[in-house]
């Protein structure tokens, strides 16, 4: 049993079958990549995992509990965190303030300014936030406004904002999309460090094969809403079905 078990998930948009009988099992503490050409259904699948979309049929279990019918913030509290394609940070706030925000998001998903003002100086929370910034090598930039960070640093900050919630499953949707080769390599390095440092499972949706083969232990190939193969990177490389799926890209 994986920490995440997707069984027979279907999702239609009108007449379009975005996901057809999708099965996926992600092992705890592994990095699992989901790859596939544009329009394969990768983002739709991810949205079904975080409660942004509800599958028409099928089940999604996280650590033995169904996520279906739960609101995104409830799923977040179960231990699933998502990194967005474009970093979602607050430009007017400093790096440190950004990392403090998830510490004060309350159970109903609302942010409590009062709680923030009250506890911003509490040493254990402050040191936890600082530790996260150190983990992503952003501690020396703690007082810089987030808006003025480079794209790569924004990604690091967003990662710290996710990690401070102590997720058990981190979902990443094309974390290197639009990045330069240098920033892409930095992101790979960062994700490797996170993987090696803590008990965390990552499911990473990625278009860039270099990223996938640098990180993933298992790969699921999705094409036209259906998983074609699931295997190790070694076996996926040069797999005829995979090459077929990417033909015409
Ligand atoms: P990927 O992330 O693999 O590129 P998506 O999951 O975004 O693919 O999309 C899968 C298919 O579903 C595409 O054909 C896309 O146009 C369609 N689609 C995605 N979201 C919606 C939506 N909200 N409404 C209608 N069609 C959608
Ligand atoms: Mg997508």
From TrEMBL:
PROSITE patterns given in the database record: ABC_TRANSPORTER_2
ABC transporter domain location: 4-249
Annotated SUPFAM superfamilies: P-loop containing nucleoside triphosphate hydrolases
Keywords assigned: ATP-binding, Nucleotide-binding, Transport
Gene3D superfamilies hit by this protein: P-loop containing nucleotide triphosphate hydrolases (3.40.50.300)
Signal peptide: none
Descriptive protein name: ABC transporter ATP-binding protein
Organism field: Rhodosalinus sediminis
